Amino acid sequence: MTLTFAEPTADALPLTPLRPADVEGWIASAPRAQAAWVTAAGFAAGPGAVCVLPGEDGAPAGALVGLGDPARAGRERFVLARARAALPAGTWRLEGTLEPEALDEAALGWLLEGYRFDRYASQSVPPAQLVAPEGCDAARIEAIAAGEALSRDLINTPAEDMGPDQLEAAARDLASDFGAGVRVTAGDDLLAQNLPLIHTVGRASPRSPRLIDMEWGQSGPRVTLVGKGVCFDTGGLNLKPGSSMGLMKKDMGGAAAVLGLARMIMALKLPVRLRVLVPAVENSVSGASFRPGDILTSRKGLTVEINNTDAEGRLVLADALALAAEEDTDLLVSMATLTGAARVAVGPDIAPFYTDDDAFAALLAESAGAVRDPVWRMPFWEPYETMIEPGIADLDNAPKGGFAGSITAALFLRRFAEGAPRYAHFDIYGWQPTAAPARPKGGVAQGARAILQALPGALGL
């Protein structure tokens, strides 16, 4: 799906965003007929409200769209995107003045409102088109929208058509589009290349586990992105109940997020050396399944006691993070749909993240606010380290007790990222449970836009 702005045309209709306090002034300065029309319609500039203005011939001459009360602006993102479905077909242009961040949000929201997952059934797209607003970087907004669309498509695709092999194909297609290189280690070769945890988690499935390793860029700081690619998670021998298994096609949401972010970085030609590592597996049930009570040895040499085969994401990430930390990298980021505990803590809309770097955390928070991609810092709480130390092995993959599940998972991963000078982990949900402006129900990237916004400041670009 292509999410782009319309070509400028002389007959593009004006779309004027207004706050409630601006309506009276607009009416006072408008042509008499339009002023009477807006007054009669009772347009109050509520969030996303639309009032189409009639021309002398009865055809639309423009429209007003409400931005809502600024005191309540934090309650809803991408308000202007609501207008797209309510506007008549045609080409529109924004009129009036918006602050730069609000302008970028309006432009991106408009494009994302046009996203539909139509692989299996046709989906109607709002017919109204928008000319790139003056003052926004249209190419950047389009690149971000394309990266987001890629992430959504990957998550939304059912596991039957998005197993480890198809995820590899998607990564290869992306690499081909931007001249990146890809290496893939699959099946028993994972053991030969000392990636044992990835092999163990995926060995029960007839779809071979693999590590996808993509690199792009010849100079600049090195950025390494690691994304959890569990293409379907049954829970293994600790089988999930059916109610918990229904959304497990999205358990590769971390992989989808880093591939979408990689697309943004490459499309924008950021001066970095980018590496993307995706351990792609299916956590299935068969005679080859790994078992509760098993003790596994990781790439790093740390042993892991398995107390729950449904805590498999941290295992595959562990080998990939250890590999990433073996080379010099200026920024290492992991993204994963890792724990239900994160959802209990912050709900589906916020991406919690962990880092020991206070400056980077502050930059991420600032960047997230600027691009309306909410994140929230959580602590690497060191007193909980004992919770992931079972005694008969170095680490426990599923500490008993049920407390601080997202934190203990992040502490587990940090053990394998040691050596990277700057590490951040995102425990994302990857799913929009109810439709919202610019975000239909279904797969969604979280944290990617915030990271993209933060990269120049974090790396001195």
UniProtKB/TrEMBL annotation:
This is Leucyl aminopeptidase. GO terms for cellular component: cytoplasm. One of its GO terms (molecular function) is manganese ion binding. CDD domains: Peptidase_M17. PANTHER family: LEUCINE AMINOPEPTIDASE-RELATED, PEPTIDASE B. Keywords: Aminopeptidase, Hydrolase, Manganese, Protease. It comes from Tranquillimonas rosea. It comes from the Bacteria. It holds the Pfam family Peptidase_M17_N_1.
